Amino acid sequence: MKPLLLSFVFILFCTIAINAQTSFDYFSIPKHGSPVERYLLDINKDSLYNNSMVNMFFADEVGTYFNDDQDLSTQQYYTSLSTKDNSFSFAYTFNPCFNCGKLDKLNQIATIGFKAQSNNNFAELYKDGNYTASNVGITIKYAKIFNGIINYQNKFGKNVNYHQSSDNNKALDTTTSIKEKYHEEILRSYREELKQNMNDEFKKYIEESYPKDASDIERLTSGDDEAIKNAKCEFLEEKVKEFYIKMASAELDYVKKNKLYNSLNNAWFNFNLYIPINSNKYDLYDRSTETITDKRFYPIGGSVAFTLYKRWSSGRSLYFTPRISIKNNNTILANAESKTIFQTSEQFGNGILLTQKEAYNVDYKSFMTSTVQLELVFFVYKDLFGISPAIERNFGEFRSVSWKLGIPVSLKDKEGKPTVNFELQWKEIRILGKKSNHFVGISANFLFGKFLN
Fold it and tell me: Which of 33, 62, 80, 350 could form a disulfide with 13 if both were Cys (CB 3.0 to 4.6 A apart)?
């Protein structure tokens, strides 16, 4: 019924606006025709928040921590430099729902890009005119984001769970908890002030600016009166949406600044795939013939993960991520082998030419490795620093258990999005030969880009 009522009201609103040439009577707009009345109409009578404002809230919160290229990011274009695997990544992120706007719930995110691993801080693509990009591949990511929950205090002092929805139907669940000042009464008081300010601003636009806009539309639109009428209606619809977003943004800023919620809860499913463009080449030393041969290897891999996210208004936040991955592996990677210098000989005219070459002196074998990983990241102060334990178990030919304990630090831009993330780590890594090594060091990731609207 609401959509039908809004459609009818807006047709009347357009009709009144179209007939205005040099002036416009704002107060002749039928009830619910203005962006303010639309905004208020979209708030369920049993709830505190406007659902579009909540959609914007959760879209801002998703992707506030980015430790490596497997994590979720809402940056439309980004480059990432990671010390974890000495890689450089470039990616393009988009919302597969192409007709969704800023007011709609962010349900999914897709990313496509490339990743290049470097040796000696250099990712080689060409050498002597030949294509040599053996450590470059295509990355594909997809994330499904579930409905979030905001916990706040109602006017009776009870904690209420507001369930995010793709439409304006909400579910409520209450528990008993009393405080002196309630989130609901504070926000509703501010909303009355905001309502008046937005009404005045919209009235000013209608009376002072719209007549010129309407005149420009008439001048630039070709066709009959019906075409001009439709053009004006479309223009007004976009203008109403513009003011609607402005009101939602103002209310969202007030909610964040004054902490008018207890906590946020959300979850998302994440899928990652890495497809190498070319194979890696390994130079292997053959002991039987004392020669060096090469082996080709395709480091394809993928993972699926599920992340639970909770954020408190105090600034603390928690991420818990179970992840299952599978990748093509080999003895060189599993044992973290390094090359050895060998002297080789070959016939050269009537003599023998002795040369030195680097190669791996191993019994080479390739195999698939599957991994189960559990990671917890808990920021104890304003998403700035915290603690992060993790454990992983490898299965298959390469069976091992590794763990790490880290202190993550995340530096944000002015919008609160991550740009520099580094982590002081103490970790134990087991290799294929059953040997374990302990390390203390720093893992870092630098993120640059433009965020999705």
Answer: 33
What residue type is 66 in one-letter code? Answer: F
Q: Which amino acid is it at 103?
A: L
Q: Strands, DSSP E only, in 146-207? A: 149-153, 159-163, 172-175
Q: If you write DSSP's letter for every residue of 255-307 in order, what string do you get?
A: HHHTT-SSEEEEEEEEEEEEEESS-EEEEEEETTTTEEEEEEE---EEEEEEE
For 346, other C-beta atoms within 10 Å of its C-beta total 9
In whole angstroms, give the CA distance from residue 86 to residue 292: 27
DSSP 83: T
Amino acid in the structure at residue 212: K
Strand, coil or helix: what is 315? coil
In a 10 Å sphere around its CB, with 0-12 CB exposed, 13-18 middle and 19+ buried, how is residue 22 labelled?
A: exposed
For residue 158, count CB atoms less than 10 angstroms from its CB and return exposed for 0-12, middle for 13-18, buried for 19 or more. Answer: middle
Dist CA 357 CA 332 (whole Å): 18
DSSP 410-427: EEE-TTS-EEEEEEEEEE
| Nearest-angstrom CA–CA distance, 373 and 296 | 28
Q: Is 224 helix (H, G, I), strand (E, B) or coil?
A: coil
d(CA 404, CA 163): 35
* Residues 193 and 79 sit within 8 Å (Cβ to Cβ): no
Residue type, 15: T
Give the dihedral sign, CA 101/102/104/108. Answer: positive
For residue 255, give both structure tokens.
């909610």
pLDDT digits (tens, 9 = 90+) for 97-153: 878 888 899 999 999 998 887 655 445 555 544 445 557 899 999 999 999 999 887
What is the Cα–Cα distance from 252 to 32, expressed in whole angstroms? 22
Give the Cα separation of 417 and 441 in Å (integer). Answer: 25
Which residues have a Cβ under 8 Å from the Cβ of 209 and sit 6 or more positions away? none
- Predicted pLDDT at 68: 65
- The pTM of this model reads 0.79
